[in-house]
Amino acid sequence: MKKILIGSTQINNGFAGQYYLPYSIGILQAYFIHNTKKRDDEFYFEPTIYKRIPLKDSIDRLKHCDIILFSTYVWNKEISLKIAEKLKRMDPKKFIIFGGPSVPDPIENKAQEFLKKYNFIDVCIHQEGERTIFQLIENFPNRNLSEIPNISYIDDKSFYRNNKNIPRLKTFEKAPSPYLTGVFDQLIKNNPNERWLASWETNRGCPFSCAYCDWGSATNSKVARMELDRVFAELDWFSKNKVEFIFCCDANFGMLPRDYEIAKKAVENKKKYGYPHVLSVQNTKNARERAYKVQKLLAENSLSKGVTLAMQSVDSHTLKEIKRDNISIKDYEELQRRFAKDGIPTYTEFILGLPGDTYNSFAEGVSMVIESGQHNRIQYNNLSILPNAEMASDIYMKRNEIKTVETPIVNPHGSQEEIPSDGIYEKQELVISTKDLCKDDWIKTRVYASISEFFYFNKVLQLPIILINKLLRVSFKDIFEDLMKLRGKKEYPIFDEIIESFYEHSNDITKGKPEFIHNKDWLDIFWPPGEYIYIKILKEDKFDLFYKESEKFMMKYDYKKIPNFDKMISEVILLNKFLMRKPFESQDKQLTLSYNFIETLELMKQNLDFDLLKSENKYKIIKSDLIYNNWEDWMREVIWYGHRSGKYVCDIISLNENSKSSINENDRSNIIGNSYIV
Predict the structure, then answer these.
(1) Does residue 32 sit in helix, strand or coil?
(2) Using one digit for the tens of pLDDT, what is the confidence trace for 134-161?
(3) 39 exposed, middle or buried (CB, 10 Å; 0-12, 13-18, 19+)?
(4) DSSP letter at 186?
(5) What are the residues whose beta carbons fall under 8 Å from the beta carbon of 138, sequence distance 6 or more?
(6) What does the DSSP assignment read for 200-238?
(7) Is 173 exposed, middle or buried (0-12, 13-18, 19+ CB in 10 A)?
(8) 92, 141, 406, 448: most buried by Cβ count inside 10 Å?
């Protein structure tokens, strides 16, 4: 009997030259090998194609295979379809099987339409694939598909068939780990120079059903757990194989009581082996106390680059529309406050363009999140339609009057080298208009997001903005909108250029252009607009002029009720300017200020009582710890790698002999504190 040759592709994105091990294909392979009665000489799994390679090379590697498995998602759908089409044309007998989130579910005739459009696909798998793939391979070359669960196909008489789904796996004894069973051993051996990333499941499923997400719908809102012994053994495998970065696929890590023990095991392994460097988890949406304990443990042991708080929106109408109103916003706020107090950075996620959101509700939400203590970063994601999310249904799209545009998928900081030379581009359906947010308002909202990102979260004017917010009681929303109004103002040429560039970029997106901005000379990668404009200001030697305009802008606020506020603003802007890390700087700087700004601003950030003291304060700004003598290293280390770790700003040391507590009663008249701004 001829040996059955099984090929597969799970083409993943690359990050800083690293690629994920093809986990989805791996679990299918591990299940088959564990459960089959076939002998080793009856079948063979070829090493999986795990990254984008020239189309011809993919064809050459798969052309001799009898069965080809395609694991698809938005970042590999188009290339997967092209590979499959060419293979089928070469040999119609090849058995082409598609699975993954980009395969439409059999609702609203979408699976049928997909199969008819791409008639070179023999079988589409829906939901879990382990048992389905097992039966398909086990019965090969017999292609009687009538009893195979979880599939759609076109039969010999050209009729569409959709077989019933079987219940999801509740336990994983028959579905062993691909890491522990040697599935990836040959792949790792064949690619000795690859620095692998790993996807990891400790459980499978999601109890939520957010309308924009396809995870809850795919798992019927049930959660099944891997055995803890298996989870711990996989952690040991990652550590011994020097896997630096682990992405935990659990939808709500921290939800289960055992998750703390898992995090503790990762900490122990890092101390013992030096690996992993990072364990990236998706924080649970509820279970506040466990979430706090888990994330605190990871952060304190440098296994986390920051805690992600996936709020998406704070507007009640929007949350109800996207079926997220059962998730507590107050829990998020409480977590944010606690992490801020502990000095652990958090990152809040917002989705731009959600049904129900308006420009005002989005802008107010951003302002509210900052007010509640988020000074590190809001990550703004443009809403795109996933094939199997509830939002993708015709009914949902029509009810919310959702309009989309097809845009190419490019990664933030993705290399131009990742852009294919074969002309096959991955694309997404980006939402640019809803019933509540017309296209012009979408552009305005996108600009508002870019302004808050650049001026505030990239730290270029964060300190004076905080001061104006706390002392003058001007909302963050009003400040950002005042900045937006500088578009077209000739007296602010640099600010006008910045705001105009944000408008142009936002408008370009609505016309189908990429979400990020490429520059061949700046590491040849795609930059988020806020980072791009900051590099541009420095490259064009406009840094000093920018801060001169900043002072002019800040002086427009009504500060007369606070003595010497103009001097305060001038000094805080100078402080902010000195703190920004630039290339070609190697000498520490000393700065003398008339107020205890550093201490006060930190208290302001935490919404704690503060006393702004008028007294001479000396500080040293540390420039000598990280020196960049060329633009490339600075762009890579500070702007790209450092945008989340705080490298934008330098460390600062107080040189003051006296502390706040040494101020005597006679000095109280020089204090501006919370009592002043009630």
Answers:
(1) helix
(2) 999 999 999 999 999 999 999 999 999 9
(3) exposed
(4) H
(5) 32, 36, 38
(6) E-SEE--S---TT-SHHHHTTT--EE--HHHHHHHHHHH
(7) exposed
(8) 448
Instruction: Let me know how long the chain is.
Output: 678
> CA quadruple 527, 532, 538, 540: dihedral positive or negative?
positive
The closest alpha carbon to 95, from 57, 124, 116, belongs to 124
Name the E strands within 65-150. 67-71, 95-99, 123-125
Structure tokens given for 316:
């009640």
Q: What percent of the chain has pLDDT over 90?
A: 77
Distance in angstroms (rounded) separating the CA atoms of residues 402 and 435: 7
Tokens describing residue 214: 């396809």
Encode 247-276: b = buried (16+ Cβ within 10 Å), e = exposed.
Answer: bbbbbbbbbbeebeebbebbbebbeeeebb
Q: Which amino acid, one-letter code, is at 417?
A: E
d(CA 351, CA 391): 14
Asked if the bond preceding 104 is cis, omega within 30° of 0, the reply is no
Is there a contact between 559 and 472 (Cβ–Cβ < 8 Å)? yes
CA 647 vs. chain centroid, Å, equals: 19
How many angstroms separate the first and last alpha carbons of the chain? 85
Q: Is 574 exposed, middle or buried (0-12, 13-18, 19+ CB in 10 A)?
A: middle
* Interaxial angle between packed helices 476-484 and 359-371, expressed in degrees from 0 to 180 and rounded to the nearest 10: 130
Amino acid in position 598: I
Strands 14-15 and 18-20: antiparallel
Q: Which residues of 125-159 are buried (b: 16+ CB within 10 A; e: fewer)?
A: bbbbbbbbbbbbbeeeeeeebeebbbbbbbeeeee
Assign a CATH topology to domain 4-162: Rossmann fold (3.40.50)
Could you tell me if 322 and 356 are in contact, meaning their C-beta atoms sit under 8 angstroms apart?
Answer: yes
- Residue 194 backbone dihedrals phi, psi, to 5 degrees: -75, 135
> For residue 659, which phi and psi values (nearest 5 degrees)?
-100, 175
What is the Cα–Cα distance from 363 to 660, expressed in whole angstroms? 37
**Residue 80 β-bridge partners:** none
pLDDT tens digits for range 279-314: 999 887 666 788 889 999 999 999 987 788 888 898
Closest C-alpha among 503, 522, 527 to residue 633: 522
Our CA dihedral for 459, 460, 466, 468, rounded to 10 degrees, sits at: -170
Return the domain boundaries, the chain: 4-162, 557-676
Stretch (H or E) spanning 278: strand 278-280
Give dist(CA 370, CA 557) in Å, integer: 20
Chain-centre distance of CA 592, in angstroms? 40
CA distance 305 to 46: 36
Element (H, E) at 8: strand 4-9
